[in-house]
Design goal:
Radius of gyration: 19 Å
Strand order of the largest sheet: 2-1-3-4-9-8-7-5-6
Helix content: 25-40%
Distance between the termini: 30 Å
CATH class: Alpha Beta
Bound molecules: zinc ion
Largest sheet: 9 strands, mixed
Strand content: 15-25%
Mean pLDDT: 90
CATH architecture: 3-Layer(aba) Sandwich
């Protein structure tokens, strides 16, 4: 939530009464957790401007870290909660990164009918790009739930989660456990600059950062037990609470001292890679973060044999 959003048709309301209404709804929205009045996927995603595409291209890795057969990734961005305006930027960055490196091709959609056992056979990973509020549940959409879990646990494929991928599956406990977090707030807002530390500097999936902690302007989700714990997943990066600006944010609770940024886990025969970074457009103009995502995507494909054992 927070940041910029728009309603389904992108309508601009101009009259004074409507502005007051919108302000009231926005205030109500901010008081809610995990849902927002400015909700839902737009019917058509905007095209990127040439300068935005140029910034993505300038930051793309030259080649994939791991040599492997070209893979295929399903990029799913449906929003039944908050719509992140970064989605078209991230979609294009993912597509261009696969094209340039040759590591993978993408199919991009917000149509949940793609989730059938038969259709998913063509893919090596599913990337949830800032999807929110998905209504999937074993009771109401058993076919979708079975297809996704079968894809990972039985077929040994991968899941990639970008930022709001941790704000889905409110009605599906197993998928929440797989993702390793479920949105409860973001004390670190999109306009702030926050310190990130590399918990596992020698791990191949953090090689993009060369062991160096860094600062980034982005929105950071709170990570909460019991879903997020260091027993449940292997945490590669987290917020650096020794940084005064990151520590001295209003409304923190003791458990915020350990806020995960990137983590991985085995799930059945398959794998899950999640990174919290990806609310602001600039994340996808950042060479190190794009490299980190590419390495995570290759891990999800199964092309990296890396340590995934949690380190409590
Ligand atoms: Zn966000």
């Amino acid at each position: 939530m927070a940041g910029s959003g728009r309603n389904r048709k992108g309508t601009v309301m101009t009259c004074r009464v409507k502005v007051v209404c919108v302000a009231a709804v926005a205030a109500l929205c901010l008081s809610l957790v995990g849902s927002c009045a400015f909700a839902g996927s737009p019917e058509i995603l905007r095209d990127l401007k040439p300068e935005e595409i140029a910034k993505i291209k300038a930051a793309l890795p030259e080649k994939a870290t791991k040599e492997a057969p070209q893979r295929k990734m399903l990029v799913f961005w449906r929003c039944e909660g908050f719509f992140h305006t970064v989605i078209p930027v991230a979609n294009e960055a993912l597509r261009l990164m696969g094209e340039k490196t040759g590591a993978y091709t993408v199919v991009t959609t917000d149509d949940p009918s793609v989730f059938t056992i038969e259709n998913l056979k063509q893919f090596d990973a599913i990337c949830f790009n800032n999807s929110t509020g998905l209504k999937f549940s074993p009771e109401t959409t058993p076919g979708i739930c079975e297809a996704i879990m079968d894809f990972v646990k039985v077929d040994g494929k991968g899941i990639v989660g970008i930022h709001a991928a941790a704000d889905n599956f409110g009605r599906w406990e197993e998928a929440r456990k797989m993702m390793g977090n479920s949105f409860t707030g973001h004390p670190w807002g999109a306009g702030g600059t926050w310190a990130i530390k590399i918990d596992q500097p020698d791990h191949p999936l953090t090689a993009a950062f060369k062991g160096q902690s860094f600062k980034v302007k982005d929105e950071i989700y709170r990570t909460d037990a019991p879903l997020y714990t260091r027993e449940n997943q292997f945490v590669l990066m987290s917020l650096d609470m020794s940084d005064p600006a990151t520590k001295n944010v209003g409304g923190l609770k003791p458990s915020d001292d350990d806020t995960g940024i990137t983590w991985i886990k085995d799930w059945g025969k398959g794998r899950m890679f999640y990174c919290s970074l990806g609310h602001n457009d600039e994340i996808f103009y950042n060479a190190a973060i794009l490299r980190h995502y590419l390495d995570g995507i290759q891990f999800a494909f199964g092309d990296y044999q890396v340590d995934t054992k949690p380190k409590p």
